[in-house]
């Protein structure tokens, strides 16, 4: 059965939930298709969030997402725990089909599906995720004050994280599988000039080891000699990139070479009128909960303006 909606939000997390709050308060009662497995986005798997404004003592990621969801429900948003299979544009309305076979029509659609951290895929990574393994230095660096830290990666993000983490860790070792870096020269030079940062090239992490307290050491292999050694570490920050969760869109809207949805200037308008995008599926730079929430607000206001013109 095909169901009619003024507005549909695809995805949840800070961007999707904020968009739902704003559209709900505007009277549009949006449907949020929040995802089949992890509604609430990446913060569902985050322990303590200390940098979201308004929580001086920090807040657990799942608690923050639950509060946002309840706030959206208060203003009339409804939620469906499913994934979207296809999005089709028919001009005045869009058709959304879910993996479970439900079909919806909407005048406006906001895409807020976020992105996924690229992972190493090695033993111990999943086991110690949130207990020493992290994908966000600004989120978790504080927890490793005075402890040995490892950053894995060779791009600007990895070097920026190493520089940031050097404020907290007793030492920071940046491990990269090649001798050359994707990072800009100034970032590499800055790291080399930082006495707390050691750069280990032509090397990969083969396994992460620990105990009930968290990560304790890594198995590191030189890719040229295959020589193995153990490296003490309590924090492992994986900075090998992100993959936006946009493959399901196909050619429904324009995306860049990396898969991020392209938008018009500082707005959230995509290349298709009536389809908007917000959060980490657009933002390849900041990727913070607060910036995603702000973009979700903008997407809702852009969608509200569109609906006011087309629906009245």
Polypeptide structure, described:
The protein is α/β, with parallel strands linked by helices and 312 residues long. It has 2 domains: 184 residues, FAD/NAD(P)-binding domain (3-Layer(bba) Sandwich); 106 residues, FAD/NAD(P)-binding domain. It contains 6 helices and 19 strands. Strands 1, 2, 5, 6, 7, 8 and 19 form a 7-stranded mixed beta sheet that branches. A hairpin with a 4-residue loop joins strand 6 and strand 7. Helix 1 runs parallel beside helix 2 and helix 4 runs parallel beside helix 5. The protein is elongated and about 65 Å long. The protein starts with a strand and ends with a helix. 44% of the residues are buried. The mean pLDDT is 93.
Instruction: Compute the number of structural domains.
Output: 2
CATH class of the largest domain: Alpha Beta
- State the separation between the terminal residues, measured CA to CA: 26 Å
Give the structural class: alpha/beta
CATH architecture of the largest domain: 3-Layer(bba) Sandwich
The helix-strand sequence is EHEEEHEEEEEEHEHEHEEEEEEEH
What's the helical proportion of residues? Answer: 10-25%
Look up the CATH topology of the largest domain.
Answer: FAD/NAD(P)-binding domain
Shape type: elongated
Task: Provide the low-confidence segments as ranges.
Answer: none
Q: How many beta-strand elements?
A: 19
Largest sheet: 7 strands, mixed
